[in-house]
Amino acid sequence: MRSFLAPLVLAAALPAFAQGVEKHWYFDVHSFGPTFEGRFQDHSGSNPVDVDLQNDLGLAKDKTKVGFGLEYQGPRFGLELARDEEDYKGAKVVSRNITINGQTFNESTLVHSSLKAVDNTLNWTIRCATWPQFWIGLDLGVRATQMEIHADGTDPFTNISATAHYKTTLPVPQIGPSLGFEALDNRVIARAYYHFLTYKGCTYKHPGADLRAFPVRWLGVRVFTDGEHFKVPRNSINSDVEANLDRTGTGLGIVLRY
């Protein structure tokens, strides 16, 4: 929570030094390694899933690959394309029977697991109200998160080995308010947003903030924070589906402005 509030508090203090909104293209490379935790259950099909990413698999961050972003930011609208990829690994003796894509790992089995997450984001910001130094807007877009889980283990009592592989994509609309400004002769740029979606008792929350500083006009550094929270109660969209997933992190990057 502190990592989200810090850039936002700074953003609130800078408008007095702002000089005006300009239009630019931005290309950045960044590192973003969020935590990923929660539980997912789906018994509605022929290949059920019932697993907790931490309590069952002990998944932790293993490798953060370089992410990319391309943006246009202008006086009236902004457009963002971004891609991020993270790897997680775990090794844990399960304390209950778990199921991944129809394959059950019995209690007391040592399960080695990995998870690959790929995010592709398309976001369009409409700047509904603008001032020389400040704007308030509405974000419209979509983020598709592809998750791929692999697990294997050998039952200590039967000595039978099992392997499971599960792959799914979660496309989520991005809708919500955003705000930003350019300050100190456009050497400091900040943005904050809060995307929110609710449907039949399910909720999705996506807060974030981005702060950029340009020591030279065409090259800068970027620090940002981003969090996603999925909550799908049982009997909301399906009586056999329940999910509670959280992903939160802070990233750093280098930005080229032209």
Provide keyphrases for this structure.
single chain; 258 residues; mainly beta; Lipocalin; ten-stranded antiparallel β-barrel; two-stranded antiparallel ribbon; 1 helix; disordered N terminus
Question: How would you summarize the topology of this molecule?
Answer:
Blueprint (H helix, E strand, L loop, with lengths): L1 H12 L10 E9 L2 E8 L6 E4 L7 E5 L1 E8 L3 E17 L4 E3 L2 E3 L4 E21 L3 E21 L6 E23 L4 E12 L2 E15 L2 E14 L8 E17 L1
Antiparallel strand pairs: 1-5, 1-15, 2-3, 2-15, 4-6, 5-6, 6-9, 7-8, 9-10, 10-11, 11-12, 12-13, 13-14, 14-15
Architecture overview:
The chain has 258 residues and is mostly beta strands. The chain has one domain: Lipocalin (Beta Barrel), CATH 2.40.128.90. It contains 1 helix and 15 strands; from the N terminus they run αβββββββββββββββ. The strands form 2 sheets. Strands 1-5-6-9-10-11-12-13-14-15 form a 10-stranded antiparallel β-barrel. The longest helix is centred in the first third of the chain and has 12 residues, at 2-13. It is elongated. The two termini are 33 Å apart.
